[in-house]
Q: What sequence folds into this?
């Protein structure tokens, strides 16, 4: 009854825990899939935060509180948000950095990869090529709505446009207006097999771009209708913001340097020299020089490179340049030990979109200074990371015997800072700078990275880190613990099966053998009763036969008693042994006394059975061979062990003489199997004391489990050894 | 060893038979059935077995019905020149009920990105690959990896130096023919005497080198009076090509014809001619332009010798799917380029080449306003 209650209690607790866990998982999944999770969303560009955005191509960096992609790559995109966002609108101010491309927004994006149209989603943007607002669907291929919507006044680069893209069920609407105008153009499509949900993104095609004030909010059909009607009474959402955003000189500079607007600038037959040749100029005084090269880094320093080397342009204050711009630079050249610098530089952009590939070198080669101010690629193992001045990310790296540092501007580097793990193998691309102000003489050179995309994780830290080894030890220990528990559980099942089998055999013997003996005895008695007198010899033979049957019946009954049918509880050991003893001495004058001391507790079935079998054997030996008048069965419980003692006042025996005949060897083997200690004290004429003391399994606590684990493991192996030894002994014997 | 009761029953039956000299018997035993426990009848077991077998067949059948997935990787995408290949590939796939995965680097010269893409295809579940290599040498190893993984591969456009095999096929633009057409066209324009510049030579692509070589050979054999005065390496950068063309024109006054071997060179050359008033008389013969040429805006443009990417894409996917169906296929096919002139720019054949509707007329939307 108590067990049933305990089982029900445990079952109830387990069920409650399972239900709770299932509810938790369901709730979490539902929350994760919620189409409104994270809405409304507003970018953190102005606060310098963009960790949640993920780039596919391009060179995405934060600058002046805006997200900027300086590359002219076709289809560079930056994505964020939940893949389960369903009905929503995204709006932003968009600024084109080139005259022959487009820039805009993505909604319901999924399956993103690097590639021009390698995503599934809707894209809308402003395009200079045909002065139109472009809308279409990408599905690893581009499907454009065939009616591009012309924008009044056209689309011009270096001008802010406010773009809004809305997806409500299968209706996709887009609107655009110049920040300086309240005139809005909008149109809408219905996609019969629409993409149902996805993230948002920023995207540009064949042009760099700048984005700011990205806002995502839930949308309804009413919002969509209002958006399409907004042309009548629309006040541009950015009108206020446009006022608050200073139209700095940057855009003016951009206008000035745009190469295709002024393609011949700087190409008037000026005599140029290679950048490498500047190093052979006078060390005493600067010399005016003109060089041509490609811009390889703009922030935090401006570097220009050609095939012969790199050039540092300090304190450059001219128009904003982009990486990949091919430029003509005129200024005062100062040769340095490894590279040159040019002061008071005047830069003219020749053309854009000529990204320079990096030179692949080792750290040892870079440490020679030969690659100073040039764009290189190298490998290294990350040994440290920290935040430097202006929140820049500083990485310490090793490549063989050489150490070097890599510096990345703040902005999206927060993502990297958390993602990078020490001892990871990295591939980095950046400008090699041999400059004490950067290296602080700690390393031979510093690598100035341009954006997050200049860093690739080749491999994570090796698995044999201290943390992983500790985790491995813990896992191994847990596995060992589970194995031990499982082993004991299996052993219990095996024992229970044996007990069941014994019970079955006992029942069989009772129903067949014992009944037959009783029947034979009855028949013999009947024959004996019916036998006429005067046949003494036959009577004696019948008596002998009856006696043999009776004896066999007794033996059968004893065997049935020995083959117990029910498995014992630990509390029943003494009682069961007392019952067993009483049944064995029935009809004699032997006194049976049973005592229990200490607090009984639950012990493994294997141990219970062992104690019972040893006790049973001792009682049987006493009854059969010692002819006692008193038999004491004592069971004593302590906190660490249980002790069973069977004491008789019979004949005793001489230790060492024919012990195996008394089943003592079997008792020892049983005792060994549960790590119990068996002692037999006896003397001729002074009775026998059989004492078995078994250690109790410790109560499991968090503090004790390693100790227990160790103990069980040792015990398991010693048991296995002794069993093997005993088996081989039996085999030999 | 612990026996279950029914095993013991079997063993005792065997013992009984052994007494009669029988070594083995077949004993039908049933585990005891507890009260209330259902025993599944043997007939029912058979039904379950048949149901399971049918389910397996259905699963295998469904798996077998999965459409073949063909990866098509052009040199780049997002230009009309390569989108036409997408259209052709989709046409062939549609006929065979296959699926086309379409992706490419964002630039023609981004060899590393194309290698990464090929490597990814090799390790994913694709039954075939169509590749327009960005670089003849660097793509050899990735293509060999694909072949080692048993992926039928069709190299299109420009060849690699791996010979065709049972799994490697070539559907190439006939660059030799392209070179000959250009030479004959120059001959027609110059009537046997004049000067020519060859711009946009690209050693990365074997096809471009072939067309340059054949052009020169044909010209030297058939019109020895025509001199080639300049040969310049090309790049994927239009402004750069503009500068190269500008330098060439200004340094060779009286130049008659420019043969531009790459689309970037064509665009750069035409803009350079536009910017130089005394260069308007120069004729341009271009190759493989990125979008439909505008003869009215560019009077200097004589003709364009265009690779038929749409046909090539269609034939390539068709070839793979035919090969997957176990039928015999040709290991190498050459597709003749199409000459686009003022006269045929609006012909159906040429217009077909610029179609970008890879949905094959099944665009899913309708404008509502």
A:
């Amino acid at each position: 009854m108590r067990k049933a209650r305990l089982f029900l209690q445990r079952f109830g607790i387990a069920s409650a825990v399972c239900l709770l866990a299932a509810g938790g998982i369901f709730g979490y999944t539902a929350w994760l899939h919620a189409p409104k999770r994270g809405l409304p969303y507003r970018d953190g560009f102005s606060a310098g935060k963009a960790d949640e955005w993920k780039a596919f191509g391009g060179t995405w960096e934060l600058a002046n509180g805006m997200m900027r992609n300086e590359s002219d790559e076709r289809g560079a995109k930056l994505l964020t948000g939940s893949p389960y966002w369903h009905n929503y609108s995204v709006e932003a101010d968009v600024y084109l950095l080139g005259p022959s491309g487009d820039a805009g927004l993505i909604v319901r994006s999924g399956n993103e990869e690097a590639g021009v149209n390698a995503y599934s989603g809707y894209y809308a943007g402003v395009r200079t090529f045909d002065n139109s607002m472009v809308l279409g669907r990408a599905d690893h291929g581009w499907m454009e709505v065939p009616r591009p919507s012309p924008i009044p006044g056209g689309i011009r680069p270096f001008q802010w446009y406010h773009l809004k893209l809305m997806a409500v069920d299968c209706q996709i609407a887009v609107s655009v207006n110049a920040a300086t105008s309240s005139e809005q153009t909008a149109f809408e499509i219905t996609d019969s097999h629409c993409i149902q949900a996805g993230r948002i993104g920023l995207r540009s095609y064949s042009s760099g771009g700048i984005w700011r004030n990205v806002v995502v909010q839930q949308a309804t059909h009413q919002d969509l209708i209002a958006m399409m009607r907004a042309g009548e009474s629309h006040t541009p959402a950015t009108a206020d913001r446009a006022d608050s955003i200073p139209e700095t000189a940057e855009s003016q500079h951009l206008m000035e340097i745009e190469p295709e607007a002024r393609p011949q600038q700087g190409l008037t037959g000026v005599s140029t020299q290679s950048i490498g040749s500047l190093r052979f100029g006078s060390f005493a005084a600067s010399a005016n020089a003109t060089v041509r090269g490609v811009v390889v880094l703009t922030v935090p320093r401006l570097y220009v490179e050609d095939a012969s080397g790199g050039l540092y342009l300090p304190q450059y204050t001219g128009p904003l340049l982009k990486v990949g711009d091919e430029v003509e630079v005129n200024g005062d050249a100062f040769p340095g030990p490894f590279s040159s610098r040019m002061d008071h530089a005047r830069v003219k952009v020749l053309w854009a979109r000529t990204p320079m590939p990096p030179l692949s070198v080792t750290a040892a080669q870079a440490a020679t200074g030969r690659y100073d101010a040039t764009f290189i690629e190298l490998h290294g193992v990350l040994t440290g990371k920290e935040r430097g001045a202006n929140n820049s990310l500083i990485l310490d790296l090793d490549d063989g015997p050489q150490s070097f540092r890599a510096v990345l501007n703040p902005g999206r580097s927060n993502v990297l800072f958390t993602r990078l793990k020490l001892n990871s193998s990295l591939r980095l691309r950046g400008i090699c700078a041999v400059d004490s102000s950067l290296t602080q003489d700690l390393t031979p050179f510093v690598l100035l990275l341009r954006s997050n995309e200049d860093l690739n994780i080749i491999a994570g830290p090796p698995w044999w880190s201290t943390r992983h080894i500790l985790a491995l030890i813990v896992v191994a220990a847990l596995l060992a613990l589970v194995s031990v528990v499982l082993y004991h559980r299996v052993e219990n099942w095996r024992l229970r099966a044996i007990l069941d089998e014994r019970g079955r055999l006992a029942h069989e013997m009772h129903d067949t053998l014992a009944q037959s003996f009783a029947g034979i005895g009855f028949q013999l008695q009947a024959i004996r009763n019916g036998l006429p007198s005067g046949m003494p010899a036959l009577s004696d033979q019948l008596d002998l036969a009856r006696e043999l049957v009776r004896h066999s019946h007794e033996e059968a009954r004893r065997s049935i008693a020995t083959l117990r049918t029910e498995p014992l509880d630990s509390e029943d050991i003494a009682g069961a042994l007392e019952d067993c003893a009483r049944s064995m001495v029935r009809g004699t004058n032997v006194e049976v006394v049973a005592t229990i001391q200490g607090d009984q507790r639950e012990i493994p079935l294997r141990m219970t059975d062992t104690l019972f079998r040893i006790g049973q054997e001792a009682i049987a030996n006493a009854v059969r061979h010692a002819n006692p008048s008193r038999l004491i069965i004592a069971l004593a419980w302590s906190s660490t062990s249980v002790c069973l003692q069977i004491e008789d006042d019979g004949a005793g025996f001489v230790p060492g003489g024919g012990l195996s005949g008394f089943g003592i060897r079997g008792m020892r083997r049983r005792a060994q199997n549960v790590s119990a200690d068996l002692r037999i004290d006896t003397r001729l004429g002074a009775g026998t004391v059989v004492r078995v003391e078994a250690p109790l399994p410790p109560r499991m606590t968090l503090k004790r489990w390693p100790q227990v684990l160790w103990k069980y493991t040792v015990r398991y192996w010693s048991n296995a050894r002794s069993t093997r030894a005993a088996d081989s002994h039996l085999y030999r014997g | 060893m612990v026996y279950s009761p029914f095993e013991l029953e079997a063993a005792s039956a065997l013992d009984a038979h052994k007494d009669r000299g029988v070594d083995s018997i077949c004993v039908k035993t049933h585990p005891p059935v507890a009260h209330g426990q259902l025993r599944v009848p043997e007939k029912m077991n058979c039904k379950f077995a048949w149901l399971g077998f049918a389910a397996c067949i259905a699963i295998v059948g469904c798996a077998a019905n999965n459409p073949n997935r063909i990866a098509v990787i052009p040199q780049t995408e997002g230009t009309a020149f390569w989108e036409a290949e997408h259209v052709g590939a989709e046409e062939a796939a549609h006929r065979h009920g296959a699926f086309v995965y379409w992706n490419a680097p964002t630039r023609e010269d981004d060899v590393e990105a194309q290698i990464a893409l090929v490597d990814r295809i090799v390790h994913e579940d694709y039954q075939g690959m169509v590749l327009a290599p960005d670089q003849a040498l660097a793509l050899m190893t990735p293509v060999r990896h694909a072949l080692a993984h048993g992926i039928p591969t069709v190299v299109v456009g420009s060849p690699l130096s791996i010979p065709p095999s049972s799994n490697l096929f070539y559907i190439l633009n006939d660059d030799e023919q392209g070179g000959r057409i250009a030479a004959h066209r120059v001959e027609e324009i110059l009537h046997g005497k004049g000067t020519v510049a060859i711009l946009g030579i690209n050693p990365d692509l074997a096809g471009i080198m072939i067309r340059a070589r054949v052009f020169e050979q044909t010209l030297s054999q058939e019109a020895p009076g025509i001199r080639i005065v300049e040969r310049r390496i090309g790049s994927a950068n239009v402004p750069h090509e503009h500068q190269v063309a500008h330098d060439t024109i200004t340094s060779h006054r009286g130049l008659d014809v420019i043969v531009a071997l790459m689309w970037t060179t064509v665009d750069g050359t035409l803009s350079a001619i536009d910017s130089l008033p005394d260069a308007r008389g120069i004729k341009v013969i271009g190759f493989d332009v990125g979008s439909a040429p505008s003869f009215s805006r560019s009077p200097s443009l004589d003709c364009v010798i265009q690779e038929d990417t749409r046909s090539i894409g269609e034939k390539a996917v068709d070839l793979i799917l035919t090969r997957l169906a176990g039928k015999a296929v040709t290991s190498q096919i050459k597709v003749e380029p199409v000459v686009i002139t003022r006269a045929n720019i609006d012909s159906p054949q040429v217009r077909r080449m610029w179609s970008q509707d890879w949905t094959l007329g099944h665009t899913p939307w309708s404008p509502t306003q």
Notes: Chain B touches chain A through 38 residues (CB under 8 Å). Confidence is low (pLDDT under 50) at residues 1-43 of chain B. The radius of gyration of chain B is 33 Å. Residues 6 and 32 of chain B are 8 Å apart (CA to CA).
